[in-house]
Amino acid sequence: MSCPFCEISPKQLLRENEYAKAFYDLYPVQKGHTLIIPKRHFSSYFEAAEEEVLAIHRLIQEQKKALDKEFAPDGYNIGVNIGEYGGQTVPHLHVHLIPRYNGDIEDPRGGIRKAIPNIVQYP
Ligand code: AMP
Ligand code: ZN
């Protein structure tokens, strides 16, 4: 089975290190939406080796600095969807790094918590 993230072209690549790569999401939810993936193909965050988690973390930090310079966002969301019922659609682990901007949605309070309906109302 072919995997779009195993086939990311060198042209799309923003940065990489020994175990991870970063590139822009093809269908960004905000300007600068970046995906950070391990080079090895596997689907779940929970399968990642510690050196892969560290490599991903380092690219998140580097890419955040680059996004700050290029787009000057006002906030960020970092998120990982795990499994079909966690919302994952591409079965190659990827961390979403999403810059957020003042006014990009009417009421930003709650951030990624809003991706899931509350079972208990938040005050
Ligand atoms: P998820 O739903 O968490 O599995 O996220 C998959 C993400 O991959 C979505 O944000 C898509 O917009 C993005 N995406 C799908 N195909 C590609 C591709 N070929 N290159 C870059 N991003 C992609
Ligand atoms: Zn893959």
Structure description:
- This protein has 123 residues and is an alpha+beta fold.
- It has one domain: HIT family, subunit A.
- The chain is built from 1 helix and 5 strands; from the N terminus they run βββαββ.
- The protein has one helix spanning 50-71, and strands at 13-16, 20-24, 34-38, 75-79, 95-100.
- The chain has a 5-stranded antiparallel β-sheet, covered by helices on one side.
- Strand 1 (13-16) and strand 2 (20-24) form a beta hairpin.
- The longest helix has 22 residues, at 50-71.
- The chain is globular and about 45 Å long.
- The chain starts with 12 loop residues before the first strand and ends in a 23-residue tail after the last strand.
- The relative contact order is 0.20.
- The model has no long low-confidence stretch (mean pLDDT 96).
- Adenosine monophosphate is lined by residues 4, 25-27, 35, 81, 87-90.
Defining traits:
123 residues; alpha+beta; HIT family, subunit A; five-stranded antiparallel sheet; 20% strand; binds adenosine monophosphate; binds zinc ion
Number of strands: 5
Average predicted confidence as pLDDT: 96
Order of helices and strands: EEEHEE
Structural class: alpha+beta
| End-to-end separation | 46 Å
What portion of residues belong to β-strands?
15-25%
The CATH class is identified as Alpha Beta
Give the strand line-up of the largest sheet: 1-2-3-5-4
CATH homolog superfamily: HIT-like
* CATH architecture label: 2-Layer Sandwich
**Roughly how much helix do the residues carry, as a percent range?**
10-25%
Low-confidence stretches at least 5 residues in length (pLDDT < 50)?
none
